[in-house]
Each structure stands twice: as C-alpha cells, then as structure tokens.
Amino acid sequence: METVELARLQFALTAGAHFLFVALTLGLATLVAVIQTWATVTRSPVHLRMTRFWGQLYVINYAMGIVTGLVMEFQLGMSWSGLTDFAGSVFGSAMALETLVAFFIESTFLGLWIFGWGRLNRWAHLALIWVVTLTAYASAFWVLVANGFLQNPVGHELVDGALRLTDLGAMVANPAARVAFYHVLGGAMVTAGFVMAGVSAYHLRRRTAEQDLFRKSLRVGLGVALPATLFTAAFGGIGFETLQPAKVAAWVGDAESLARAQAEMVATHGPGDYLPSVAWVQGGAITMLATFAIMFLVSGLSFLLMLIRPAVRSLRPWHWLLTAMIPLPFVAMLGGWVFREMGRQPWTVYGLLTTAEAMSPVTGAQMRFSLAAFVTVFAVLVTVNYWLLARAARRGPEAVALGERPAETPSPVLTF
Fold first, then answer.
1. Any idea where the domains of the chain sit in the sequence?
2. Is the pTM above the cut of 0.85?
3. Tell me: the pLDDT tens digits for 172-225?
4. N-to-C CA span, the chain
C-alpha cells in the first residue's frame, strides 16, 4: 500500500473515532443543560438526580474525547505538513479559535461545573453548564469552518506558493461549513436522544431502582430523537446543494456525469485522475440514509408508544429494541462522515492541493509504524471510554459520584 494511502487510512480511523466522541458530547451537553434548567426552576429532586446521572456519562465521554483530540492533532504535523505549509494561515486560524474555545473556555467552565456542586448558588451553577454547552457548539462550529474551507476554499489569496486569509467573513459564511454545522448538531442530538432512551429502556426492562427517573429520561430521549432526526435530514438535503460536481457524479453513479467532471478537472488542473471512489461515496451515503430510515421509523413509533404510560413501564420488547438502537446513530454519523470526506478526494484543499501534495516527507516504513501506533492508542482509548460509559450506565444513579457531597468527618477531640 502506498504511503499516501497509509496516511489517509490513519487519519480516517483516528478522526472517525474522535468524531464519535464529539457527537455524543454535543448532544449530551445540551440535554444535561435542559434537564438541569428544569431541576433548577422547579427544584425537582428527580430531575436533579437525572442531571447528575446523565452529567456523569457526559463528563466521562468528554474527558476521553479530549484525549483522542489531542492525539489526533499530532497527525497534522507528523503526516500532513504539506497542508500546514500551504494552507496553515487560513485553515489554522479556524483551528486555533477552536482550540482556544475548547481547551480554555469550555474546559474551564466544565471544571467549575463539576466541582461547583453544593458550593455555588444553583443559578450560577446552571449558568456554568449552559456556558459549557454553548462553547461546545462554538468549538464544533470552528472545526466545521476549517473543514468547510477544505471542501470549498473561499476567502483567500495565493502568495509565494501559500494561501493567505483575506476574508474571514467569507470563510465563516461558507455554505459548505454552515449547512454542515447544523447537520452535525442535529446528528448529535439524535445520538444523545437514542443513547438516553436506550439506557433508560435497559433500566426499565430490568426493573432497577429509580424507575421514575428512567421513565422521564426515556421520554426526554425520544422527545428529542424524532424532531432531531427530521432536523438532521432537512439540513442533509440542503447540504447536497453544496457538494462538489465530482462527488455528486460519484453518488449518482452516472458514467456521463463522471466523465464530464473528470474532463473539467483535467482542463483546469492538467492530466490526472480527479474522481473519488464511487464505492466509498455510495457506501457512505447508503449507510447514512439506511440508518436514518430505521431511526426515523423507530423514533416515530416510539414517540407514539411513550404517550401510553403502561407501555413505558412494561413493554419489554420495545425496551429491548431501544437498547439495541444505541449504536445506530454512531453508524449513521460515520457513514455521513465517509460520504463527505471521501467525496473530496483526491483533494485535501479542493481544487488547490492534492492529498499527495499535502503529505509530509515520510517513508513507507515510518508511516506503517505511525499507523500501528495511532491505531493501538485509539483502540485502547475507545475501548476504555465505552467500557467506562457502559459501566456507569449499567450501575445507575445510585453509583453516581458527580455532585456527591463528601461525608462529614467529626472534628478530632483533644484529650489531656
């Protein structure tokens, strides 16, 4: 396998794995903030326990997502120095803002939220989780601004063989970024909704303690999953209008459209193969659309069932189905990501920098070692993350440490 293909495989595996953490983090942060808002306004004890339970799952996923994000960043310098040399002044500006938001603002306020239980005024504590949620959105936005530039480069000029940013407004308003941002946010809410509904159904089926908590959580998850699925599909449809001609041709599979797209690229950039892999583009799109259809059907039927109180309590086959649905939104997110990224090939910056040109000057042996190391590290991180999430979800609210007040110890008595 060529060095470029090894580097692409490494980035695909690590970025795809990190993307799964991001999807759940964005969605769970929003749901935790909404539940805590209700708990704060109504002083509802059950909603406060819901906040702590789902908040602990969010914190676990966030922490592991930060670690995978840090590991993934090493690749830009190690494997893709050609990209940073050519477009670092443009692409890097959005990534720098994302780092500022995620690692300074979001992480700081999340730490205050974690350690502020019982120490801060309840309204101040509520404000913290909303700051965390909004900065998570801002972080995702700047990542998609950077990705949107790679998909549809705007707001730049070429100076001495490298790109320079000339119009930040055009880069921020890039349709390839804005539409994708709303699409990803919708997908994150779908993911969190199905995870919340699936975990709740698991506990309802097993008749564990806190049945009222999980009945309410089930309704929250399903109440979010259905509209979020429709929202995601709407912006996915709008996103088809921003696709590159070669990607559209590969998705349609029309030989005439593929030939025309290739001819246009050859006329502009000279001889070469400028068509993406039809199999990968169509495979990613079909996976995304098929899983969407299943999620829409299940969330629609479940939305009706949850209005029937006895069904929520005791319809065990439905509980099994919802628990089995937990992995599906992650599959859909990966399918959409493959469709978006594979359709851009063979370009890293569409129409300006090929993937081969973006590569660092590394040997095949170095790339094989790097691939093995990154895959091993990410396999461990992903395994540990989902083991921790599964354990915390299975143990239920009684084992939650988030927000737990330490037991008071009596003052020592001095005797003489």
1. 3-233+347-399
2. yes
3. 999 999 999 999 999 999 999 999 999 999 999 888 888 889 999 999 999 999
4. 80
